[in-house]
Design the sequence.
């Protein structure tokens, strides 16, 4: 099966519970594949565990595709900028605005941290695509684009620089798009519908070609959503 998971935001516990819940298989004849929509890191409150999220994703190996989120970009940029400073300059450097960096530093060496930044910047595409059973899919953090039209990094990472409302209305023609970034709780006034009774939950636009997956994981009242492409089934933890 092919699964899609939205913004995790440092909640390794929920992420691992979700993989158990769907019985994710990373190898064998019936191996699954997972698409992560970015924003693995930052937030998560007292239970924030960025190392746990990182190690779980590394453990999934080739069975997982991660598209880059704005928080990955910010974290990688900070690691690169800070990690290369001499010790004295580090003291004067402003702290990373989220706890992720301090938590990562507790358990990872400088070299491990730089590897994390390289992993983000070199291996995470801004958009991924898949054709499955004749259906074409696109995965991006904030907004998708036709694969033939390369947009700016900000378009995929943040969304709003272009016409976000138009994307939510029309999607990307010929594809089913899966995105995160914006908590679905804010979509009540857009043309579309919540896919499940309990909130927060996955939201689908009225055209039926955009699924928004960020259900606020990492916030106190949020949860993590997972969508199975073959069955349309949604899972929440
Ligand atoms: Mn985001």
Sequence:
């Amino acid at each position: 099966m092919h699964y899609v998971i939205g913004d995790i935001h440092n909640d390794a516990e929920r992420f691992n519970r979700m993989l158990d819940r769907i019985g994710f298989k990373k190898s064998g004849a019936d191996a699954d594949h997972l698409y992560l929509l970015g924003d693995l890191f930052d937030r998560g409150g007292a239970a924030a565990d960025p190392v746990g999220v990182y190690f779980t994703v590394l453990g999934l190996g080739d069975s997982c595709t991660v598209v880059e989120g704005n928080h990955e970009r910010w974290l990688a940029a900070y690691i690169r900028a800070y990690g290369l400073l001499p010790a004295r300059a580090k003291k004067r450097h402003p702290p990373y605005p989220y706890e992720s960096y301090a938590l990562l530093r507790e358990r990872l060496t400088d070299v491990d941290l730089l590897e994390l930044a390289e992993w983000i910047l070199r291996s995470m595409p801004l958009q991924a695509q898949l054709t499955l059973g004749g259906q074409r899919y696109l995965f991006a953090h904030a907004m998708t684009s036709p694969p033939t039209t390369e947009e700016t990094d900000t378009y995929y990472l943040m969304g709003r620089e272009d016409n976000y409302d138009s994307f939510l209305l029309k999607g990307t023609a010929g594809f089913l798009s899966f995105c995160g970034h914006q908590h679905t709780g804010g979509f009540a006034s857009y043309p579309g519908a919540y896919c499940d009774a309990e909130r927060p939950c996955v939201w689908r636009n009225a055209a039926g070609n955009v699924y928004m997956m960020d259900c606020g994981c990492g916030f106190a009242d949020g949860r993590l959503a997972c969508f199975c492409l073959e069955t349309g089934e949604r899972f929440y933890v």
Summary: The chain has a mean pLDDT of 95. The two ends are 19 Å apart (CA to CA). Residues 2-236 form a domain with the Purple Acid Phosphatase; chain A, domain 2 fold (CATH 3.60.21.10).
